[in-house]
Amino acid sequence: MTSSSDSFPFGIADVVELLGLTVRRRLPSSLYLNCPFCGDQRGRLNVNTDKNVWRCNRCGAAGGMLALYARYNCTGNADAYREICEALGRYTPRPRVNDCIGVKPEQNARATPAGDTPDLLTAALHAAADTHAQGASAVTAARAD
């Protein structure tokens, strides 16, 4: 099993193998499978291993590698990603939003622990929240008049 995608630790060929789908024909950059969604037994579901996408030429079902797994297992894409990674032994948690903006988990949106200096983005977010609160107060006061 190889990965042909840079942003995922697996490729659509890995997903096909994991699901145990019947491959009717293999070409250098595509696979032809029986469609598990419409019951086609003639290999009309095309999997493009270069683009990590699939489409059934009979029923029109289509999507990416996460959608294939998610639809087959009646789950969402986030769960599909986690389950595939765990099954293949390649689990790498996706970063949380706070990790991306430099906020530590022990910090909340408004408070900074003593001794920590908030980064520029955090300071900007606090300033925006304060400005929004002041604007909301002004609108409420104007409506009261």
Quick structural gist:
41% of the residues lie in helices and 14% in strands. The protein has five helices and five strands.
Describe the structure.
The protein is an alpha+beta fold and 145 residues long. 41% of the residues lie in helices and 14% in strands. It has five helices and five strands, in the order H-E-E-E-E-E-H-H-H-H. It has helices at 12-19, 65-73, 77-88, 97-101, 120-144; strands at residues 23-27, 30-33, 45-48, 53-56, 62-64. The chain has a five-stranded antiparallel sheet. A hairpin with a 2-residue loop joins strand 1 (23-27) and strand 2. The radius of gyration is 24 Å and the shape is elongated. The mean pLDDT is 79.
**Gyration radius, rounded:** 24 Å
For the largest sheet, list the strands in their spatial order.
1-2-3-4-5
| Termini gap | 70 Å
Mean pLDDT, rounded to whole units? 79
The tally of strands reads: 5
Principal-axes shape call: elongated
Task: Give me the number of helical elements.
Answer: 5
Structural class computed from helices and strand pairing: alpha+beta
Proportion of strand residues = 5-15%
Task: Write the H/E string, N to C.
Answer: HEEEEEHHHH
| Contiguous runs where pLDDT drops below 50 for at least 5 residues | none
* Percent in helix: 40-55%
Largest sheet: 5 strands, antiparallel
Topology, please?
Blueprint: H1 12-19, E1 23-27, E2 30-33, E3 45-48, E4 53-56, E5 62-64, H2 65-73, H3 77-88, H4 97-101, H5 120-144
Antiparallel strand pairs: 1-2, 2-3, 3-4, 4-5
Helix pairs in contact: 1-2, 2-3
List its traits.
145 residues; alpha+beta; five-stranded antiparallel β-sheet; 41% helix
